[in-house]
Amino acid sequence: MDTSAAIRVADLSKDYHGTRAVDSVSFDVPQGSITGFLGPNGAGKSTTLRMLVGLTQPTGGSATVLGRQYTELVNPGRRVGVLLDASAQHSGRTGLEVLRLGATMMGLPAGRAEEMIEKVGLSASEARRRTGTYSLGMRQRLGVAHALLGDPRVLILDEPANGLDPAGIHWMRTLLKEFADEGGSVLLSSHLLHEIEVVADDLVVIGRGRIVARGSKEDLLAGSGVAVRSTDDEGLAAAMRAAGLSFTATGDGGFTVTAEAEHIANLAGAAGITLRELRTADDAGLEQLFLRLTADDAREDVKS
């Protein structure tokens, strides 16, 4: 692992009543980069993030931010911005009050709250409203404002784009890219796979509490195999299954297969099946990679 990593998670584990929710998870977040943290619901993402910021005590292993445990950082909000739950805001306070209180606790100038209100696109009238009246998208913007309040070097964000409209998602994407371009580091958990694919430099995929893939986005997507369509997908699936191949059905017909193109062509030929398409699956995107890696944890059957 990179010794200059902004975030380091090493053999992190968590047991709940004899059940291992997070099992020996290890990964780094390099400085000046965005790392996408992906996994199905219940895979251990939120528990890992909570352990990282000291909200949940790990059973084993360690997690550090900027070389220290989060709870050991002096005035942590000045170094690490955290957004784990946009709804965890006092519903009786206005958005501006939430930020002013945060600024006071961090020892920041009073005007910093107004700066952040403007930065995240909340209007002056919205800032004066109680957060209990906010939409989810407005809460997300306020949560991001609070995470950025102390001008941190690291951001840890769990589903920050929930509730945002397309314009808001574009704003979030731009903000995170600019933050990383200026030397900041981001650990970003999201179910919006396209957005992760657009902004992330590295990917960490978790399933059933264990890391199932990690590395650069380019390397992981390049290793996604081949895409194939045929005149008899059921027959081709049977042939691939008999050959012990790992494959995923795509939403618009055909399969993504972890195998060489020549091997698939030979299987189809031996089964008398005509192929309509056979190409590298580099452009199949993060969705197909995610489905293949986490198929054992999905509620829906994505395997054939």
Descriptive keywords:
alpha/beta; Rossmann fold; 304 residues; 13 strands
Describe this structure in words.
With 304 residues, the protein is an alpha/beta fold. It folds into two domains: 7-216, P-loop containing nucleotide triphosphate hydrolases (Rossmann fold); 225-280, no CATH class. Helix content is 34%, strand content 25%. It contains eleven helices and 13 strands. The protein has helices at residues 45-52, 95-106, 112-119, 124-127, 136-148, 166-181, 193-199, 217-222, 233-242, 261-270, 285-293; strands at residues 7-16, 19-29, 34-38, 60-65, 80-83, 154-158, 185-189, 202-207, 210-216, 226-230, 247-249, 255-257, 275-280. The strands form three sheets. The protein has a six-stranded mixed sheet, sandwiched between helices. A four-stranded antiparallel sheet has the order 11-12-10-13, sandwiched between helices. A three-stranded antiparallel sheet has the order 2-1-4, covered by helices on one side. A hairpin with a 2-residue loop joins strand 1 (7-16) and strand 2. Helix 2 packs across helix 3 (112-119). The radius of gyration is 22 Å and the shape is elongated. The chain starts with 6 loop residues before the first strand and ends in an 11-residue tail after the last helix. The model is unreliable at 299-304 (pLDDT under 50).
